Amino acid sequence: MNKKKVIAALTEAMNLELEGGLEYLYLSFNVFGSSRRLLQGFLREQAQEGIEHATKMAEKITSLGGTPHMKVQVDYKTSKLTAKRILERGMVREQKALDLYKASLPLAADDVALEELLRSQIVAEQEHLEEVGKLLREN
Ligand SMILES: [Fe+2]
Ligand SMILES: [Fe+2]
Question: Lower CB count within 10 Å: N or C terminus of the chain?
Fold first, then answer.
């Protein structure tokens, strides 16, 4: 296992999760109309999960002897978003996370625990992607 590459990948994942969490939180402030009740809870849950996933990545980084480098840039000021547009942004987020975890998987090499951690992230992100897809589906 190439520790340096693994730490770099986990750092990227940590920052992506944090940014995703913040974006979901921001989107939850801007959901209006009849979808508000339904979507706001979902967006807050996703925001929470982004922080939880980022924490997992950071803990693994320190376990490997690394130091988490937090580098998050957010600048959101769009208040007029339709539920559809919000969910489409969610799809992009989830796909990004899924792609990153999948691409990181081979880096685990013989470290079974790390492989399991990455696999569990892949399962979680795939489920998010499917759920957002269903929320977007008309019927
Ligand atoms: Fe995540
Ligand atoms: Fe996710």
Answer: C
Report CA(5)–ligand 2 centroid distance (Å): 22
Report which bound ligand comes closest to the CA of 16. Answer: 1
- 55-66, pLDDT tens digit by residue? 999 999 999 999
The residue extents of the domains of the chain are: 3-134
CATH class of this structure's domain 3-134: mainly alpha
| Residue 139 pLDDT class (50, 70, 90 cuts) | confident
Element (H, E) at 72: none
Residue 22 phi, psi dihedral angles, 5° rounding: -65, -35
Which residues place a Cβ less than 5 A from the ion ligand 1? Answer: 17, 53, 97
